């Protein structure tokens, strides 16, 4: 009986790790016959796990959806990852899941083994979440997109561009990428016959979804995330400027709050072309670099830096009365 219970746990772990398994694959992984797999599947069903079967010669099994969530089997690292993920989600960029994340975190923490509870408690006690400054995405939108990526189903949605223009899109979804408080969908746009990156907070899915599609070949995930960073850095901002910073390129990359392409001009000089919908905000960001810089091109940024410089000068000139300061109404 102990051998059978252990095999059931291994079978359940396999079914939870991948969407589809053939009977032969499961039998080979567990080193048993296909007949034993069928019996073990029936045992799992008796315990409340909804295991769906596919008929045919190449038939197999899939862990389906049921009326209630059955127990999940997690190894040590997965359990800690769930705790960390729930703690982060409680104050993250996905809207509507803060309270449920806290409730789920309490339940998981209650049943953690002592060896894991200590690790999870350290994270909960000493990791402080930063306030979310970016746009928040409805959790239902993210799960819809992720499900379409997983099932290779076309996704139809209304999309709002940065200037407020509404369009209807039909895409093959592939990856969700999270970058600095924003979620992005990487997809093949069927109407434009090209790869596109979409802000998830601007997506409104339409129902029903589209048909299944044959996945295209993808580069490694690291290349996909790098491409998203380049795409975000080249977004169609209202204002752009060319700036030379008198500091190493790596220094600038580590301090700019958005992904940008920084080109070195030598050991202590670099150049980049930041963009923004608000030149004043961009001027503040450049000030946070704590390095000398020169605005080579960008009249709006030049004007914003000038206003900011005047404001800072007035801050250390107490003899300048408020009524005489430009831009401030007299009392």
Terminal residue distance: 86 Å
Uncertain regions: pLDDT < 50 for 5+ in a row?
Answer: 324-331
Query: Element order, helices and strands?
Result: HEHHEEHEHHEHEEEEEHEEHEEEHEH
Strand order of the largest sheet: 9-8-7-6-10
The backbone outline, from C-alpha atoms, is elongated
Question: What number is the mean pLDDT?
Answer: 80
SSE class: alpha+beta
Total count of strands: 16
What's the number of helices? 11
Biggest beta sheet summary:
5 strands, antiparallel
Q: What is the percentage of strand-forming residues?
A: 15-25%
What is the CA-based Rg, rounded? 27 Å
Q: Key terms for this structure?
A:
single chain; 4-stranded antiparallel β-sheet; alpha+beta
Model description:
The protein is α+β, with helices and mostly antiparallel strands and about 325 residues long. Helix content is about 40%, strand content about 20%. It is built from 11 helices and 16 strands. The chain has helices at about 1-15, 25-30, 35-45, 75-90, 100-110, 115-125, 140-150, 220-235, 250-255, 280-285, 300-315; strands spanning about 20, 50-55, 60-65, 95, 135-140, 155-160, 165-180, 180-190, 195-200, 205, 240, 240-245, 265, 270, 275, 295. The strands form 5 sheets. A 5-stranded antiparallel sheet has the order 9-8-7-6-10. Strand 2 (about 50-55) and strand 3 (about 60-65) form a beta hairpin. The chain is elongated. The relative contact order is 0.06.
